[in-house]
């Protein structure tokens, strides 16, 4: 069954400081390859407008809109007629869009939460502008970047008829081994986050201070000028997704650091894990509940709690062990964490929603 899918997401046109774009691009590409037709609707906002690295796509139709009124007038018939309508997290005025989508869509409606721990926290305090507790039950599907126990919370406390994990993934056409010289001992890709910075300091910056003869690198936007990088730590503000494979393959190891709210609930793999592993680069990660569901510690991934752990790993001279670990992680990704695998999971969830309609509580439109 080929589906006509409409997605309203934070941004697909700009990957600057925006991990959502990478996820949407990979998933849409995989869905299109399986014969589905996708329209992506994006609010035209200054930050992404000024930092666009994608203006058109061979895999979907991209339509920009200026306001709620604009999208309802220009895209109402498209949304109404679609087989599936997906609203992503952190979309501007998402709560109002959710009311509108679930009122007019005749197909399956989906909330795609790329920020589940943040969303659940905001739902508890009624501070989310992009979703509300009243709207959650009206979506046929709640697809979450986070799995584990939080899915039962979404169903039990917020009334979602169906909540499933749809994790991030690697686009293996983009993320693959590349034969390039090694430039850095340890590298990290990630936009600045205040709650993640202390762990980055502990697991990369402090090891760099202790290993002055080694070179380190951090790639990411929005780092404040007050961050004091040691002389052997290079900071690169942005690399487009097409350059990620070359970057990863220039590292002996790459680092994964998880935001505090995601680590607290667990089962929240970062796309960095899958992308680096797909490139055949060994990953050092912080600990969080459920990580063993994705990679086997010491066989497919290395875990570090502090700077001592990282220094010990980086000081090892056994390249065979390092490369064997990277090969095992790459095999794990290719067997279950590709964009194609996620597209198949998406199809399965949608088909279940079509074949087994759920009783969705009626909520008055605002």
Q: Describe it for me?
A:
This protein is of the alpha/beta class. The protein has helices spanning 19-33, 46-50, 68-81, 94-104, 116-125, 150-156, 197-210, 244-248, 260-265, 271-278, 307-314, 319-336, 339-355, and strands spanning 4-8, 37-43, 61-65, 84-88, 108-113, 141-144, 163-165, 184-189, 216-219, 233-236, 251-256, 283-285, 302-303. It has 13 helices and 13 strands. Helix 3 (68-81) packs parallel to helix 4 (94-104) and helix 7 packs across helix 11 (307-314).
Query: On the 0-100 scale, what is the average pLDDT?
Result: 94
Q: What fraction of residues sit in β-strands?
A: 15-25%
Low-confidence stretches: 359-366
Strands, count: 13
- Quaternary status: single chain
């Amino acid at each position: 069954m080929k589906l006509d899918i409409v997605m309203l997401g934070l941004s697909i046109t700009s990957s600057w400081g925006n991990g959502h774009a990478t996820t949407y691009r990979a998933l849409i590409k995989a869905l299109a390859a399986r014969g589905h037709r996708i329209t992506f609707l994006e609010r035209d906002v200054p930050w992404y407008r000024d930092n666009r690295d994608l203006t058109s796509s061979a895999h979907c139709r991209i339509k920009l809109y200026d306001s709620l009124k604009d999208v309802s007038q220009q895209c109402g018939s498209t949304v109404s007629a679609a087989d599936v309508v997906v609203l992503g997290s952190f979309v501007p005025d998402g709560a109002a869009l959710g009311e509108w989508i679930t009122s007019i869509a005749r197909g399956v409606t989906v909330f795609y939460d790329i920020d589940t721990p943040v969303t659940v926290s905001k739902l508890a305090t009624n501070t989310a502008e992009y979703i509300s507790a009243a709207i959650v039950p009206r979506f046929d599907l709640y697809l979450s970047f986070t799995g584990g126990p939080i899915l039962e919370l979404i169903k039990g406390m917020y009334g979602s008829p169906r909540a499933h994990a749809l994790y991030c993934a690697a686009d293996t056409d983009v993320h693959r081994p590349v034969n390039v010289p090694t430039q850095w001992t340890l590298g990290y890709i990630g936009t600045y986050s205040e709650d993640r910075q202390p762990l980055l300091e502990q697991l990369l910056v402090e090891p760099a201070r202790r290993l002055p003869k080694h070179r380190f690198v951090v790639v990411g936007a929005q780092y404040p000028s007050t961050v004091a990088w040691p002389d052997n730590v290079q900071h690169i503000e942005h690399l487009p997704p097409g350059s990620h494979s070359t970057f990863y393959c220039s590292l002996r190891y790459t680092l994964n650091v998880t935001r505090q709210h995601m680590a607290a609930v667990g089962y929240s793999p970062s796309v960095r894990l899958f992308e680096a592993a797909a490139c055949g680069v060994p990953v050092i990660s912080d600990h969080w509940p459920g990580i063993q569901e994705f990679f086997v510690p010491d066989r497919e991934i290395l875990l570090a709690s502090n700077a001592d752990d990282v220094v010990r790993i980086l000081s090892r001279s056994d390249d065979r062990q390092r490369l064997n670990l990277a090969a095992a992680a790459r095999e794990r990704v290719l067997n279950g964490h590709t964009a194609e695998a996620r597209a198949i999971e998406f199809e399965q969830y949608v088909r279940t929603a079509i074949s087994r309609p759920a009783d969705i509580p009626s909520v008055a439109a605002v």
